[in-house]
Amino acid sequence: xxxxxxxxxxxxxxxxxxxxxxxxxxxxxxxxxxxxxxxxxxxxxxxxxxxxxxxxxxxxxxxxxxxxxxxxxxxxxxxxx
Amino acid sequence: xxxxxxxxxxxxxxxxxxxxxxxxxxxxxxxxxxxxxxxxxxxxxxxxxxxxxxxxxxxxxxxxxxxxxxxxxxxxxxxxxxxxxxxxxxxxxxxxxxxxxxxxxxxxxxxxxxxxxxxxxxxxxxxxxxxxx
Lengths: 81, 133
Description:
The complex is a heterodimer of chains A (about 80) and B (about 130).
Chain A: H1 3-22, H2 26-46, H3 50-74
Helix pairs in contact in A: 1-2, 2-3
Chain B: H1 2-10, H2 13-31, H3 35-57, H4 88-118, H5 123-132
């Protein structure tokens, strides 16, 4: 495990997580959550969990983002918080 | 000595990151008013727990859990467990990721149903409509 890389990616994960729950637009929140999942996938590849990284890249960053975008298009983009 | 101490702390900060992500998820689930934001918080919480389990599997100076010379050797090499990352938490968390996308699908389907019923995704407006009924 390369800990410098791990530290940078973990910081990016935390900041994109905070951004995903603070942004007002729900479509932006969905895309930021996709970025969060992809950063998490990189983190697992760094930590040697390659199978988990593959599954996260397809299921977490791919399917979850599609679900969120579909849900936002079936409802509304606006959010009060 | 200084470098060793620093790398000792560096190998533990993953757990600090787990706690921070867990608190972000818990805050979003409790304090956010929008249903989609709550669902995002639930997913962040789940990934924090998965990160905790994968962090427990990591070892310093170890490689990914595929046996060296496993496919063309004669099977006589001694295998040291300290040379490989522990694959058991990875397999458990593989199941957790699939379960998390299933719960995400159900939660978003329920949110879409709630929106079609009440015309809003904000929790306080839904409560207000239920109170006025």
